[in-house]
Every structure is written in C-alpha cells, then in structure tokens.
Amino acid sequence: METVARASPHEIEALVGRSVDAFFQDEGYWHLFVALRCTDGNSLVFSTEDVGIAKYFEVFPIKVKLEPTVARAWRALDEPRTIQRVTPLFRHEWLEPSNPHPELVGGGPHHVHHAGRGPASPHAVQHVVVQAGVELQCASKSSLVVFASNTAPFNVEVAVSLVEAENALAAFTTTEA
User: Fold this and answer.
1) Is there a domain that residue 123 lies in?
2) Which of 24, 82, 138, 164 keeps 20 to 30 A from 43, CA to CA?
3) Residue range(s) defining the domain that contains residue 11
4) Is the torsion defined by CA of 48, 149, 22, 9 positive or negative?
5) What is the top-level taxon of the source organism (predicted)?
C-alpha cells in the first residue's frame, strides 16, 4: 500500500526544541494554513498539498515550513510550549463506488471518498495511507495537533486544548500500516 507524505522526517525532527507562544488560523470556511508563532521570531507554517492518486481521488498530506513571523491575528496560548517530541499522524483514505442515484439529472457521483483510522473497506477501488498531521508533544505535558481536514480540501485544522487534541487524535494512527 502506498504512503503519501510531504513533510520529510528531517523537517519534522527540526520542530523539536522550538517554543511556541501563539497560533493563527483563518476564521472562515477556508483556512488553508495554520501558523504557530515561535519565541525566536519565526513561525511554523503548516499547509497541505494536492496529490492526485487516481481519477476522482485526491489526497492532501500535511507539510511544514519555517518562515519569519509576520503580523497576523495571533491567538496566544495559555503559556509558551516547548516541543519535545513530534509524532507524524497517518490516516487511511480510500474510494468506494457510490450507489446509483437515478433521481439525479445527468451523471451522479461515481465514487465516495472516505478517511479515517482504517482499515479501508473491502469494496475500496483505491486506497492509500496519508501523513495528514502531526502531534507536537510539549514539555508542559500538553499537545498541539495540526492536521489536514478530512471534510474540506486544502483546509488545515489545529487542536490546542486537551479535549480538542484527544478528539483530533481519534481520527489518526501513528503507524503507516
């Protein structure tokens, strides 16, 4: 089974030791990136990349880059958090043929896209594992989870509170299999 990733192990490991004091995410429906403001004057910017797997099947793995901090509507964390460990998060994504819809005019949908911890349905016509997020485990025993949305292409989500992080992690596995 193919694994699709756009954040290299080196890029992920380079996050360790950075201290984060705020985050940014657009408030509207489209939030195409999440930025974490570091205390050293840089920001970690997470976004996704469109990867075509097959006809009607695209996935959006997470990627990260370090950029100089710019003015944004930053939302401060309760305290600065130093990243001690980074865990890549994977999810299975697959296509299944859709049920016929004779009530629709023209051609109805051909396939339905699914995403989750897996396993994929035995009816899947395409199946890949996607590195769709990261868990940033911090010194304060807290985590930040940054991940590609499974409901809107290109959107990136961030989980800051313990409850948000636990809910986000439920959709992922930490292994590629």
Assistant:
1) yes
2) 164
3) 2-169
4) negative
5) Bacteria
Q: Quick one: pLDDT at residue 107?
A: 65
Q: Which two tokens stand for residue 29?
A: 């429906």
* 156 within a domain of the structure (yes/no): yes
The whole-number pLDDT of residue 106 equals 67
Of 168, 142, 170, 143, give the one whose Cα is nearest residue 157. 168
Looking at the domain assignment, is residue 69 inside a domain? yes
Residue 133's pLDDT is what?
Answer: 97
Which parts of the chain register pLDDT below 50?
Answer: none
Task: State the residue for tokens 């950029």.
Answer: 67
Q: With contact defined as beta carbons under 8 Å apart, do 69 and 41 qualify? A: yes
- The answer to whether position 175 is within a domain reads no
Residue type, 76: A
Measure Cα distances from 3 to 30, 109, 132 in Å. Answer: 26, 26, 11
Three state DSSP letters for the chain: CEEECCCCHHHHHCCCCCEEEEEEECCCCCCCCEEEEECCCEEEEEEECCEEEECCEEECCEEEEEEECCCCCCEEEEEEEEEEEEEEEEEEEEEEECCCCCCCCCCCCCEEEEEECCCCCCCCCEEEEEEEEEEEEECCCCEEEEEECCCCCCCEEEECCHHHHHHHHCCCECCCC
